[in-house]
Recover the amino acids of this structure.
């Protein structure tokens, strides 16, 4: 028995290492490393995902006798993931495979490894850019020059988003939102802005982090009285419904932009609805009011509402919900909404408020960025089969573990 326990421990260490390596490689794929080694990095990423597939199968076989119900769901998810992988949904299928691979592994260990990986990645990227191994792209914007080690339409946003998820990981690990953490996180954001000389999306990212911190610190710790408990229940219901609300807002935003051109709402979203509007019309969606000229789209193209186009659309990339609809149709979009509503419900039910608020913040973040489903930002999309560790740290910094966290099939406390 001891030998088997040691083997399983080694396998779990290999699994976490593979995830760290995959996050590292995926982060590199969004930087100027891709300018120098585009084929090698992508090929290595694909091979890592394939290795993860075998590790996921191993975890299902290992736990099938003791966690039969959970493993049956994992098998169903794995089959869907393989089908998605074959259809070109590489990152989406990888998320499902990773969640299975982490079956019955403490989620806190995974988050720690993710945080270390991202911080290490930032340090290596900055050092290599200073010794001219990778390029530092400078984008000239009216009034300033913006530096970026990340490629893409607005490359520095990728770095800011990566920093956001690293800080959300830190919030989850500490479970406490005190002044020291706020100073550390705020200082990092300020340094990032000063280093890259950028202002794009900085206020949004700062807002997501600060609201998550403050909301938890000043509200969820004060729900002992009956009056606050009633308010708490109502607020939580709204938060649980955020995926549905987000889809509704995206729909309204696209229709309003299409009819009235620039609206107040659209100005605050930096023309994201306009870009999504273009993407929908190019894909064959017939909106009530056409903003593009008749020669800008092919009238013979019809949109497959059930399965989508199966391809990434650049113009829809900024809004997650529009991107899901275009790439995977209503099947993918509704699956995302159902999963996230269910997970928010379970997290609230089990009083795991830190993860509940972080998860909700990422759902809201999907209204302006679709990056949450990329592998390098995937840390809070892969805990569904893992064990969540709850409780506060004692004076020695040790956190009490709950019993394995199950609610039917996913990894939640009863």
């Amino acid at each position: 028995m001891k030998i088997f326990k040691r083997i399983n421990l080694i396998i779990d260490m290999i699994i976490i290492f593979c995830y760290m390596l995959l996050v590292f490689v995926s982060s590199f794929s969004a930087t100027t490393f891709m300018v120098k080694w585009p084929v090698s990095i992508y090929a290595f990423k694909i091979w890592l995902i394939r290795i993860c597939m075998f590790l996921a199968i191993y975890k299902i076989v290992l736990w099938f006798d003791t966690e039969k119900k959970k493993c049956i769901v994992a098998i169903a998810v794995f089959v869907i993931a393989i089908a998605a992988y074959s259809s070109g949904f590489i990152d989406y299928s990888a998320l499902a495979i990773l969640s299975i691979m982490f079956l019955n592994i403490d989620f806190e260990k995974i988050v720690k490894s993710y945080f270390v990986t991202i911080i290490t990645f930032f340090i290596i990227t900055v050092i290599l850019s200073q010794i001219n191994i990778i390029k530092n792209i400078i984008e000239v914007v009216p009034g300033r020059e913006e530096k970026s080690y990340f490629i893409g339409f607005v490359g520095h946003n990728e770095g800011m988003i990566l920093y956001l998820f690293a800080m959300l990981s830190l919030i989850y690990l500490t479970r406490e939102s005190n002044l020291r953490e706020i100073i550390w996180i705020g200082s990092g954001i300020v340094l990032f802005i000063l280093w890259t000389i950028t202002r794009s999306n900085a206020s949004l990212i700062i807002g997501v982090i600060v609201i998550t911190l403050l909301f938890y610190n000043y509200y969820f710790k004060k729900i002992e009285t009956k009056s606050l408990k009633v308010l708490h229940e109502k607020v939580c219901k709204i938060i649980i419904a955020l995926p549905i609300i987000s889809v509704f807002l995206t729909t309204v935003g696209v229709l309003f932009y299409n009819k009235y051109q620039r609206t107040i709402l659209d100005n605050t979203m930096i023309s994201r609805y306009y870009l999504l509007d273009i993407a929908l019309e190019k894909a064959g969606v017939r909106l009530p009011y056409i903003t593009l000229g008749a020669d800008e789209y092919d009238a013979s193209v019809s949109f497959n509402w059930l399965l989508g186009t199966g391809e990434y659309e650049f113009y829809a990339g900024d809004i997650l919900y529009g991107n899901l609809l275009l790439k995977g149709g209503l099947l993918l979009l509704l699956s995302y909404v159902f999963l996230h509503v269910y997970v928010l419900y379970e997290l609230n039910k089990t009083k795991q408020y830190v993860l509940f608020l972080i998860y909700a913040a990422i759902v809201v973040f999907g209204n302006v960025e679709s990056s949450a489903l990329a592998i390098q930002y995937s840390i809070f999309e892969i805990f569904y089969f893992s064990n969540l560790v709850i409780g506060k740290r004692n004076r020695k910094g040790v956190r009490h573990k709950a019993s394995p966290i199950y609610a039917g099939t996913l990894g939640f406390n009863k």
